[in-house]
């Protein structure tokens, strides 16, 4: 992808809480997301992490896990929608 000219990738993670991800049927692995962002950054690709806060039945603790995960993801940019 880098050789084809890709210079920026957005990752729609949505939540850093596994229970929230299951409830919205996101079907992603948070560890794999971290690995993919790390690989993209190593190639010099700008990374964006996209998150949502305010899912039905989402607790304050789940919101905090999402914030903590967004920091751990280490994307160049993180965007959140309420």
Architecture overview:
The chain has 82 residues and is α/β, with parallel strands linked by helices. 40% of the residues lie in helices and 23% in strands. A three-stranded parallel beta sheet has the order 1-2-3, with helices on one face. Helix 3 (60-73) links the parallel strand 2 (46-52) and strand 3. It is elongated and about 45 Å long. The model has no long low-confidence stretch (mean pLDDT 95).
What labels would you give this structure?
alpha/beta, 3 helices
Topology:
Blueprint: E1 8-14, H1 18-23, H2 30-42, E2 46-52, H3 60-73, E3 77-81
Parallel strand pairs: 1-2, 2-3
Give a brief description.
This protein has helices spanning 18-23, 30-42, 60-73, and strands spanning 8-14, 46-52, 77-81. By secondary structure, the chain is an alpha/beta fold. The chain has a three-stranded parallel beta sheet, with helices on one face.
């Amino acid at each position: 992808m880098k050789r084809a000219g890709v210079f920026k990738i957005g990752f729609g993670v949505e939540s850093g809480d596994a229970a929230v991800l299951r409830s919205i049927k996101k079907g992603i692995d948070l560890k794999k997301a971290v690995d993919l962002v790390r690989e993209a950054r190593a190639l010099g690709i700008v990374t964006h992490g996209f998150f949502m806060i305010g899912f039905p039945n989402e607790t304050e603790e789940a919101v905090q896990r999402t914030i903590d995960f967004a920091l751990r993801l280490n994307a160049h940019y993180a965007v959140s929608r309420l």
